[in-house]
Amino acid sequence: MSTTINVEGMSCEHCEQTVEEALRGVGGVTDATADREAEQASVDGDADPDALVQAVEDAGYTASA
């Protein structure tokens, strides 16, 4: 299953990496890819969307499912 979440505040490649690492730390995530230009992250796995949003927000970005 793939989930897309909206992420605001990414301005560079390091930001994308930070978001990806935060998402990969959520249980059930098998892979995550962030795109600062699209302001989105794509997540593979069966993680709870609310947990994904929380992980991104804990990393310092604004997110919504």
From TrEMBL:
GO MF annotation terms: metal ion binding
Protein species of origin: Haloarcula salina
Matches recorded under SUPFAM superfamilies: HMA, heavy metal-associated domain (SSF55008)
Lineage of source species: Archaea, Methanobacteriati, Methanobacteriota, Stenosarchaea group, Halobacteria
Protein name (record): Heavy-metal-associated domain-containing protein
Taxonomy, superkingdom: Archaea
Chain ranges of the HMA domain: 1-64
PROSITE patterns from the UniProt entry: HMA_2
Chain segments annotated as transmembrane: none
